[in-house]
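input
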Amino acid sequence: MKLIAKLIAGIIAGILIGLYLPTWVSQLLLTFKGLFGQLLFFTVPLLILFFITSGIANLPKNSGSLLSKTVGIAYLSTIVAGIVAFFAASIVVPWLTTAGQTMSSASATVLEPFITMNVPPVISVMSALVLAFIFGLGIAATGATQLQQISDQGRDVIERLLSKVIIPLLPVYIAGVFAEMAVAGTVFNTLKTFGIVLALAVVLHWIYLTSMFFLAGMKSGQLPFALLRNMLPAYFTALGTMSSAATIPVTLKAVKDNKVNEDVANFTVPLCATIHLAGSTITIVSCAVAVMVLHNALEIPSFLTMLPFILTLGVVMLAAPGVPGGAVMSAVGLLGSMLGFGETAIALMIALYMAQDSFGTACNVTGDGAIAILVDSSRK
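output
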């Protein structure tokens, strides 16, 4: 929650600096934004490579049927959530805002940073994704312990970089984005769309959860709303912790209260805390559509264009870092390579996502409870 407060402070500070302070102060923030963006984009392929390799290699062994059912349901849940979010956002966001027209204004003031630097990534995002699957599946099949140690250690290094450098500096990065928009005169329309898309994301979270528990109730023969009510302690705990992993004890108790077999609960809940991010996917897809509406260089794509992004995003979400904002950090590379997002669009995505990260996490862990019921019901 401190991170959200810092993010909001960064947004406010950026707006005030852009509106009331000399232009050189905004240029200084813009310079930091550019340099920080180079570090971020350099890190993303490494994040995908190490986290997905490590995630696949460390999947539980000797539990084939249970593992395949859990991973399959989690992936399908994430994909359906992303598709529904795309259609909902494509209808709602353009209807409620005219911000995209304002962003394209020819009279907008354009600032230039004092210093620019180009730090190209050592590997492309898609190459990192393919390589991660090759090594992850290869390690799992051959038991290559040294490669597994390298992937685990690489994952730990990148997670350390995220938690100690990139995540703490995000508020300053976001301040630069909003200072630039304040100087250009587009900031207030952007904030209007922020409110719309955040409310939309939370509404979609609850539609998703209601649907999942309705399906779980049909499969298990229990009342859907009773099942969902038992999961509320996990939901509200996740709102505070912003961490699926930290909420596992509460999620486990709630799942067992829903009469899920203890062995199934003990297997599915910790696994889903890592691989099931349907709530985060809803937010990322909704925010992506909103940024496309805001950004004059982008258009909302057709469903056939968006579907490959959602399918690939579902794979990336299987091994997103377990830190606040980890899901959107994993998605940054795909947004750039598959949807054409530039640095400003990426920064807006991060700001939008981080503002609701706790709600996305709460949706993730609550949905884990429905998956546990579905997996348990399929064994009977």
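quick obs: Residues 97 and 193 are 6 Å apart (CA to CA).
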